[in-house]
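Action item from last meeting closed. Structure (203 res):
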């Protein structure tokens, strides 16, 4: 497997709120590249290419960060580690890039995607989801973008645990294997469909 995506950035000179604010007004997003050796390099990324890259890779897929340092360009395999977003405008304020060694395992929180309608829900039960993501360990290029969880066969009082997840080869979960990610349970008396219908009829 090869890295097929590259984000071109430049080394950033100024630090602090003033220079960072000016960069944002010019259409750039300040950030820091943390190397696999523990160093950190301030960088600036063009806003639109960064947003498109984030849509494609999220926090789980490795891409090349090409850093232009006064004309000298060097590429590094990275993950997007942390994103600071504007509180109400749809734009990034700051991004941390985490350098990875392609031969060493990393731990990443990978989103769970639940699909299907449980048997137990059709019988009047409720699907409870306990986690939206699961912490996985693998080499960077083996990390999946998401884990699909098929809940169609879940009956009332049944659960899907971490050990039941269908993970790719060479990928393992960090959590306790018996940790439940979803269950179908009986609704409490306050939530029963019959009582809800009766209450609606009286209203």
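Sequence:
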């Amino acid at each position: 497997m090869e890295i097929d995506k590259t984000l071109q950035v430049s080394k950033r000179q100024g630090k602090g709120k003033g220079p960072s604010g000016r960069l944002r007004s010019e259409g750039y997003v300040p950030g820091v590249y943390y190397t696999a050796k523990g160093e950190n390099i301030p960088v600036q990324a063009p806003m639109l290419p960064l947003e498109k890259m984030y849509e494609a890779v999220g926090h789980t897929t490795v891409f090349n960060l090409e850093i232009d340092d006064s004309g000298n360009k060097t590429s590094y395999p990275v993950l997007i580690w942390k994103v600071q977003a504007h509180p109400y405008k749809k734009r990034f304020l700051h991004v941390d890039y985490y350098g990875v060694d392609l031969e060493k395992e990393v731990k990443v929180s990978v989103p769970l995607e639940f699909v299907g309608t449980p048997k137990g829900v059709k019988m009047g039960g409720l699907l409870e989801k306990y986690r939206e993501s699961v912490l996985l360990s693998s080499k960077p290029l083996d990390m999946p973008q998401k884990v699909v969880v098929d809940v169609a066969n879940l009956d009332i009082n049944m659960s899907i645990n971490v050990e039941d997840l269908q993970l790719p080869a060479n990928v393992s979960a960090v959590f306790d294997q018996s940790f439940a990610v979803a269950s179908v349970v009986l609704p409490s008396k306050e939530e029963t469909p019959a009582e809800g219908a009766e209450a609606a009829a009286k209203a």
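Note appended to the action item: The chain has two domains: 6-101, 107-187.
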